[in-house]
Amino acid sequence: KTILVVAFLLGFACAEHSTAENPPECVEGDSKTCPQAVVGTQPNCSQSNCPVSGWKPKSFYSNKSGSAQAYKPGAPVKNVVCEESLRKPYRAASWPFSRGGLGDGSPSLVVNVQLLSCAVEDNESCCCSPLESEDVLLEVWQAKPDGSYSSISPHSEEGVCRASVPVIESTASFETLAPGSTGILNGLGPAGWDFSPYGQPTIHLLVTAPGHEPLMAQIPTLMNQKLDFQEFFGPDWRGQAYTLARSNQASLSVDQWNASVSNNQVNIQATVRLHKSTDPSNLHQAMCPSFLYGTPGSFFVEPIALCAPSLLNFFRL
């Protein structure tokens, strides 16, 4: 009996030593040795030999990407998305039935985005490295602080709260104002009108790069009086919420949120992970997947200006 007890204790000690210094080799698909949540969210996992299985988003659109209804192609190249003159009024909703604001108007946001290229094929190692390409396009758009989008019609309000942000050495930086919340008209109502239910304010990002699938993501920007990040209270009852697929993919993460009440400013550091592909979809295919535009699944989610531009001849949005 004494020998058995000693052997058991030695075995337990060896197991602890193996776990601490020599972790078991990552087995693809095994959540214990290869946690998907960890692999899919690390900013850089080049040291790991763990293939990323199932990291690729199942759909271009999801609750993580948000709606592209107000997207407008051809935004001018600049580093300031929303101009200072739009700071007031600021209307952000913390729950679906009302919008409020801060006395100093919309806080300034300074956003830095790190772009990573992630290999996700089964025969490649789990490796997210800085995106090295000179042809990366990062488009940013958002609602104005009052909760309305600028016009999506051609030759109207060009570049208002919209920008193509230069990417230098896998990093993009831009300044903007915190967006307001859009309502049931998704920020495209006549003369800026909108009604409850409202949703969480967000900044939309669209990234395209050679050899990668196009990616759309959003940065949530709801904050309290101290400018600390705040979760939206309650469900999203807008039309887009009923048509977007639920997803737990980690294509974008907000890594830092540093607020300065005295300066009415928040500095945000975010990471975007692009999926490598030998046969990537073109942008129109990705953003306009519906065969017939006008169904709820397309109207509330897909960009009118890209997927059904002829509608803008009849409705000046």
What can you tell me about this protein's structure?
With 317 residues, this protein is an alpha+beta fold. The chain is built from 6 helices and 11 strands. Strands 3, 4, 7, 10 and 11 form a 5-stranded mixed sheet that branches. Strands 6-5-8-9 form a 4-stranded antiparallel sheet, with no helix packed on it. The protein has a two-stranded antiparallel sheet with strand order 1-2. A hairpin with a 6-residue loop joins strand 8 and strand 9 (215-220). The longest helix is centred in the first third of the chain and has 20 residues, at 2-21. The radius of gyration is 22 Å and the shape is globular. It starts with a helix and ends in a 10-residue tail after the last helix.
Show the helix and strand layout.
Elements: H1 2-21, H2 36-39, E1 92-95, E2 98-100, E3 108-119, E4 127-130, E5 137-142, E6 162-165, E7 171-177, E8 202-208, E9 215-220, H3 239-243, E10 252-260, E11 265-275, H4 283-287, H5 296-299, H6 304-307
Parallel strand pairs: 3-11
Antiparallel strand pairs: 1-2, 3-4, 3-7, 5-6, 5-8, 8-9, 10-11
